[in-house]
Amino acid sequence: MTGLGDRLKEARTAKGYSLDDLQSITKIQKRYLSGIENEDYSMMPGAFYVRAFIKQYSEAVGLDSDEMLSLYKESAMHEKLEEENAQLTPPMSRSRGLGNSRLNELFPKLIVALFIIVIIVVIWTFFQKNASNKTGMDVEPDNPITMDSNQPPAGNTDTDGGASGDDSDKEETTETDPEPEEVVKEQALTYVGTSGEDSTYTLTDADEFKLKIDTFGDTWIGVQNENKEELTTQARVMKNGETIELDVSDVEHVRIRVAVTSFADIYVNGEKLEYVTDKSPQNIFIEYEK
Fold first, then answer.
1. What order of strands is seen across the sheet that includes strand 264-268?
2. 20-37: pLDDT as tens digits
3. Which one of 1.10.260.40, 1.10.40.50, 3.30.56.10, 4.10.520.10 gives the CATH number of domain 4-88?
4. What is the pTM assigned to this prediction?
5. What angle, rounded to 10 degrees, do the helices at 47-61 and 19-26 form?
6. Cis-peptide into 152, omega within 30 deg
7. Judging by beta carbons within 10 Å of its beta carbon (0-12, 13-18, 19+), is residue 33 exposed, middle or buried?
8. Is residue 2 classed exposed, middle or buried when 0-12, 13-18 and 19+ CB atoms within 10 A define those classes?
9. How far is 122 from 129, CA to CA, in rounded Å?
């Protein structure tokens, strides 16, 4: 425990907020807020949401979000190092016990397998011997074939020289099983939550991540990746009727800063993003789960 949960809980109590009050303020589910206070992130949907929820919680109770996120990173790194050490130095006695246990389990199975193989070999030898004896008994002596000189050759039984018999060919038809239809996944653009000017969404089941921003009035637009690098030529005021198109398939998430939301439409792979709030300015965070 790094003290992150205790500091957040103390700040919430000092503000006079209950978990239900904080849920109404941050739009974060109560069970996630309780998990953050207990530093138990097992029920969280992902590391990105943990960071986002801690940031929203900190701002709601008046704490420095960067400091709280640093405490979370220290806790996550400590747990990771403990797991790696446990995996690298397993107890010797336990390893030996597991080896002996596995050998004891495999030995009876090997005996049964050998017994089955012996039975199969005996049965196969028996049938091979019977088959050879039966073949020898069914052999008949060759009889000489005699030809009657007065008998017309086979196949010329009519006077017109036509061959008798059925000359029709039989064609075999084969049926092929229909190929299974390929299941096509549809992308999902899901709203997660809102805190202040920040609204968070997730993009799942998408092979690519392409943005398109159309403006219907003069509004400031900026697009950044997770490293806060500007993805457009520069953040600027876009005029009425301008369009930005970006392929951001190689990023983990983007932040779109919109000064006037009523003057800008955002499309993700052709799907229009619905603003949950009409607040201006507004930051739209989109997490791309590949």
1. 243-247, 210-215, 264-268, 271-272
2. 999 999 999 999 999 999
3. 1.10.260.40
4. 0.39
5. 110
6. no
7. buried
8. middle
9. 11
